[in-house]
Amino acid sequence: MSQWKQIQQLEIVLLEHVDYLYDDNFPMDIRQGLASWIESQDWDTAANDESLATVLFTNLLSQLERVRSQEQNFLQRHNMKIIQQQLQVKYTTHPAVMARVISTCLREERRILSSACMQEQGPLEKSLQNSVAFERQKSMDNRVGVIRGSVQLMDQIVKYIEDVQDDFDFRYKRLQSLESSDGNSEMMKQEVTRLQDMLNRLDFKRKEILSKMDVVVKEIDDLMTSQLNPELQDWKRRQQIAAIGGPLLTGLDQLQSWFTLTAQSLFQIKRQLDKLGELVVKVTYESDPIPLQKPQMEDRVKCLIYHLIKSSFVVEKQPCMPTHPQKPLIIKTGVQFTTKVRLLVKLPEVDYQLKVKTTFDKDLPPGVSRQFFIPTNNTKVMDIEDYSNGCLSVEFRHLQLKEKKYINGTKGSEGLLSVTEELHSLSFEACFTLQGLTIDLETCSLPLVVISNVSQLPGGWASVMWYNLLTNEPRNLAFFGNPPRASWSQLSEVLSWQFSTLASRGLNKEQLTMLGEKLLGQHVSCSDYQVSWSKFSKENNPGKPFSFWMWLDSILELIKKHLLPVWNENYIMGFVSKEMERTLLKDRQPGTFLLRFSESHLGGITFTWVEHSDNGDVKFNSVEPYTKNRLSALPFADIIRDYKVISDGFVPENPLKFLYPDIPKDEAFGRLYNSHFSPSLVSFPSCPSSKVNTSSAPCQSPEPPMTPGEFDMLNEQLCFDIDSMSSPYSE
């Protein structure tokens, strides 16, 4: 079943989350009309590959044209034409942006499907949903709107003051001309009275506008302190969680709207103060409130503008290598990476080009053994993006890192921390002048892990997950000097995200329980049990030469590269101990099998089936785990289809009949089989492999079951040693 069909079967509450994903940047009409085609394209790679993105964008327009030409409904044809034109305007010069939008939507769909399979949401996801509650956004929209309305009304008051003052100026000059001709006339006395009334009104209005300004400026100050800045910090926290596989990061456009509207209000108040200053030059009087209050008011407004713009300089896209789009914040030396910064305030004017400079390893903490620098051009000019509502941003696409060498030609020495525990940072700086106000901008990426070999990638990703799970500090580079512990409820949620990121589902409660038992033993029943960083990533599993995380990461890679179709169908039980496996199978009909990941191999999957002897004994048979080497030669579904056993000279037969609990094998895997010829996989369990078997007969070497020609063909097809798989054993 396609991902889009699964989405359409969700409950209304979850469908509302799906609805939130789609807007003018990627209309749902396209998702609906091109569902199968969209899901078959590699949008993740295209998001960081301009040439591939261009090809996919061109193909998408062609697909839209095809669907439009087949549409019978005139209104639908018209709407699709409009959508097609809008996409061309938005993305013709920026196809990678479109690829990123679609990649993000598909990923979030997978996360929503995954959450639908979970019995309950984890604590992190619950807290994030609360933090972006609709009511809070509504309150913010309301408050910003009220401020904008108040500022507009102040514009009218300033205009009224200007009109009254012009009238006063005209009458005052006329009075001066009357004084020269008839200084004691009744008309002149009336005019003096009228002018005094006007001056009183003018004084009242000047005091009124300054009072209203004071109220609005205080309101803006409070808005920035109590709501706008917390919303920004909340977005940054959600960016951290999204970076490690959590819910889709949304809300930046909304933040930009709030920041820009607030800035526009401040700019408008500044213009009103400038206007009042002009009016004072023409007309002033004793105890005029404007000269007394205007300087202080201007300083407050300028200060708010400065801090608002300074805080609006954010890292929109954290550093990421295009080769690993789902593992940001890990950089390999000599490999290009991309990052993007954005200014959330739309500026009315900039006196010159706004240049952004990047600096790596600025202000490193003591104890860091390695330092890096950017050998390529590290300065770019911010530009206005038409497809992002006109904000200023700049994307660095071709940055690289190089390790610093010291005077003797050597690189940094080994420190107390491992390479993947050393944290680094990428800083961004800019400076510009706006309406006479000099503003220094500075922001930085989340902490980065720098590796020199891809074998360090799993350890680096463990560090990225641990940091962003447990702290919202933007730049605690000494974090792993004394890393905090994580509760199992937090950690299990993040581990499930690792699966939902690459597939259409995460881990269910039973699978997470098994993982918890493997990591914590009997403590898994306590969701608040604290897991140390060392136990998660550094200490080897009991009796094994690898850690818990290295084992789990190897399974993720195996699923991603070789098992995704089977995993997405929910056919792999995966995380189940051998003891539980036997408990589940013992009462099932002969030939029932289940699929689980190897506990003793990195990146291995095995299957076990049950047999019943005539005397009632239950036998369990397992095969040597299939790793990436074997699965690169044959798809796993074909292996299950063609697996055969020769025992005691009988004709080879496939012992796998029913996928646990009772699904006929071909019914489960039939549509995943390859149609082309696949040689049978032959195993020789002449003695049972499971300890449950009561037979004590020693294992005998089987007679050759195939002709030399058959053996050669099989060996060539499988590309691995046939002897290594010819004797099943209990792992």
TrEMBL record:
Principal subcellular localisation of the protein: cytoplasm
SMART domains, sorted: STAT_int
One GO cellular component, as annotated: nucleus
Residue ranges annotated for the SH2 domain, each copy included: 571-662
GO MF term list: DNA binding; DNA-binding transcription factor activity
An individual GO BP term: cytokine-mediated signaling pathway
SUPFAM superfamilies documented for this protein: p53-like transcription factors, SH2 domain, STAT, Transcription factor STAT-4 N-domain
InterPro entries: p53-like_TF_DNA-bd_sf (IPR008967), SH2 (IPR000980), SH2_dom_sf (IPR036860), STAT (IPR001217), STAT_linker (IPR048988), STAT_N_sf (IPR036535), STAT_TF_alpha (IPR013800), STAT_TF_CC (IPR015988)
Protein's name in the database: Signal transducer and activator of transcription
Native source organism of the sequence: Scophthalmus maximus
Name of the coding gene: stat4
